[in-house]
Amino acid sequence: MCLSYGTSYYWRVAARYEGGLRGGWSNIRQLTTAEPSDSLRWEFLGFPHQGRDYTNQLSIAVHPENDSIIYVGIGSNFSAGHQGKIYKTTNLGATWDTLVEGVTATTIVIHPQNPDIVYVGLSAANYTPPGIIKTSDGGTSWSWSDYGIYIDWETFPVEIEIDLLHPDTMFAGTSSFYASQGRIYKTTDAGRRWFRPTVSDSLTGNISVIAIHPETTSIVFVARGVIGHLFRSSDGGFNWKQNSLSFDTASIYDVEFDPVNPNVLYAIITPYDYPVKIYKTTDGGMNWFNSSNGLPQLRTHGFYDILIRQCTCEIFLISGQGLYHSSNQGDLWRPISLPSSNWLEGAALSKDGTYLYVAISNSGIYRTRLITNVLD
Length: 376
What we know:
Elements: E1 8-11, E2 29-33, H1 36-39, E3 42-44, E4 58-62, E5 70-74, E6 85-89, E7 97-101, E8 105-110, E9 118-122, E10 131-135, E11 143-144, E12 155-162, E13 170-176, E14 184-187, E15 207-212, E16 220-224, E17 228-233, E18 241-247, E19 250-257, E20 265-271, E21 277-281, E22 289-290, E23 304-309, E24 314-319, E25 322-326, E26 334-336, E27 344-349, E28 355-360, E29 364-369, E30 374-375
Antiparallel strand pairs: 1-2, 2-30, 3-29, 4-5, 5-6, 6-7, 8-9, 9-10, 10-11, 12-13, 13-14, 15-16, 16-17, 17-18, 19-20, 20-21, 21-22, 23-24, 24-25, 25-26, 27-28, 28-29
């Protein structure tokens, strides 16, 4: 059973006998779950580059059917002479296999229906080849899967989002050292061919955020980096309209749908003059409001991500400066203690919401079981 933090639960039981007869109800019983900062216990899963300066850049993805299988991608550190790689463990970190070398893996996406299919977005950083690669056999073999996307040594994919209902359909956003060259791309044949679904000039720029509605997947949100303008499409990306979430002096770093109520979305806003803020909408994106109560003065540079635990709608804010949690849909945030003081670079949830995994720079991979004790 998936329980929320800091929540009281009540129940009664009654015996049912053969023939349909039932005994009387018991007295009401109660338990109250602890807050996460008081209850989380971290388990070290190791990592081949533990303790080495392999750059502050990691990506992590957990197999949806077997949470002992984890993919991790790291960046290259040219000055230190370290090549970025993609790793996989099938035994919860007891051993790690090297799948690909000489890459800078920025995003890893696992197919929701066939977990042997994995896509990895590669940055052009540190003289590593940019693009999208794909495996259909769990990482044994890989091939390029970015035909139709304009890529060069200064333009590369930074975001890949898969349509959960129609997983042959995906969107990818590219970024560039020259902001005007970034674009939005779409595939409907599992990455064999990509195309630009729109020629809208408004979507020219670094495409850093893509969010697909979990139930009505023709609805897509896209945000450009640097200038914080959010756009919405209701026809699968062909036509776009600028959303009310718009900032000229801030970036939009992430947008996520609540998986239970898609009218609720959360966005990470990084103003140029800091601090980082969380914005929320409860009407599908028409109106947004600040929902940052309890967050510290987070600096605007660095890594940020939002994870939502589907079974309870709890939210985790991932940042290089720490890990934060809300058990009440963003009304109040609390810090969660991490196993290391080093830079937090990535995180993932198991599909059933039981485990939270984190990747910490120069420390390794850890996981914690959510809801580890209760207060009677």
